[in-house]
Amino acid sequence: MSSHEPLHISSRCIHGGQHPEPMTGAVMPPIFTSSTFVQKSPGVHSGFEYSRSHNATRFAFERCLANLESSGLDEETERTCGGFAFASGLAAIATALELLDAGDTIVCMDDVYGGTNRLLNRVRARTQALKIIVVDMSDLKALEQAITQHKPKMVWTETPSNPMLKLVDLAAVAALSKAAGAISVADNTFATPILQRPLELGLDIVMHSTTKYVGGHSDTVGGALITGRSDLAERLRFLQNAIGSVMGPFDAYLALRGLKTLALRMERHCQSALRIATHLESHPKVARVLYPGLKSHPHFAVAQKQMRLGTTPAGGGMITIELKGGIAESRRFLETVHVFALAESLGGVESLIEHPAIMTHASVPAEQRAQLGISDSLVRLSVGIEEVNDLIADLNRGLDAI
Ligand code: P1T
To answer: What 3-state DSSP class applies to 51?
Structure first.
């Protein structure tokens, strides 16, 4: 089913880029485990040679995600598909960075997943001599100035950002990058294509940790890149195969299965997160609530414009709070809650909670963490799809223990 058919996004989760399996008519693609494919004569084959390069289960997932992100390149022909699946989110990021040459400059959002920060500053600055300019892109003037001054080859953004949930105006990032001849990339892990589709706003590449909402069940690790530009699709297809950090067929099966319910899950994540954020905002033990769906969020206007469930603005499933107190209070709170599991990661059906300074963002230098506001009293919540009153009761119990 192609993107030319005017299906709603929730139907595209199920049908986007999908066709019955040609031999049996199976509605879901089988898990193709074969590492290699027989040839009639050297170089004469059915389009499938070797599973790193060609895997039909992975292709089905790549086409569906390409369709959801409005790539326009989601037909069942390997040459044109605009979706690429990797062994992890970081493997996807690492492959995207290979679009750059040694010594190039990248302008990067200041608040990004700790692993993204680590890969750029502690690996690629050394091995690829990348010059990394860090900017708070919620300030468009600062972004414009950085682009003018440093002439980057790539602009890397993340919105909502991890863990401070800052919002970046994607249409503005796309326009500024394009004018400067830079490739623009948006990490869309937190919003998912249900809430925001960066390619429709002019971005060149979308990145996902499919470990999170896309997979949705905390049972697979994966990543993806999606583009609507056929020149970049060709280069990414080459790099995906040449570097080889591909998603395996079992993970592709789980990720595709996860996509089927993405729209349904996001609706519930958003509803419950808004209820919880509103509740926490008036709780005496909570100093500050950051949630893009609350009027008090500093970038509420961008959220209203950019993140939507259908036509209704929506804030997503992630909430970051600052507790009153320090590390002792944070520990007591996190040790007491039990419906929220204390664990890294996010975006699964189960609610997760974590301490960014000690857990997901420990690899960010302390000075940069302090600048960003990643303090000892900061806690990040991934609101799952359990009954919301159970979640509120659990958080109340934790806050009572402080
Ligand atoms: O973990 P991996 O699949 O390699 O994805 C990395 C990644 C990239 N981008 C964002 C926005 C992410 O949140 C992540 C992974 N994040 C966590 C594990 C976390 O708990 O924040």
So the answer is: coil
The tally of domains found in the chain comes to 2
The answer to whether residues 254 and 281 belong to one domain is no
Ligand 1 is surrounded, with C-beta below 6 A, by: 88-90, 113, 115-116, 158, 162, 187, 189, 209, 211, 221, 223, 344-346, 360
The sign one gets for the Cα dihedral 135, 140, 146, 147 is positive
Domain boundary among 260, 287, 302: 260
Minimum CA distance residue for ligand 1 atom 13: 113
Beta-bridged to residue 50, according to DSSP, are 36
- State the CB neighbour count (10 A cutoff) for residue 156: 27
| 128 in a structural domain | yes
Q: Which position among 104, 136, 187, 376 bears the catalytic label? A: 187
| Whether residue 52 lies in the annotated active site | yes
CATH number for the domain including 210? 3.40.640.10
Co-location of 124 and 204 in the same domain: yes
Is residue 199 domain-shared with residue 306, that is, in the same domain?
Answer: no
At 20-61, the pLDDT tens digits run 998 999 999 999 999 999 999 999 999 999 999 999 999 999
Beta bridge partners of 156: 108, 185
- pTM exceeding 0.85: yes
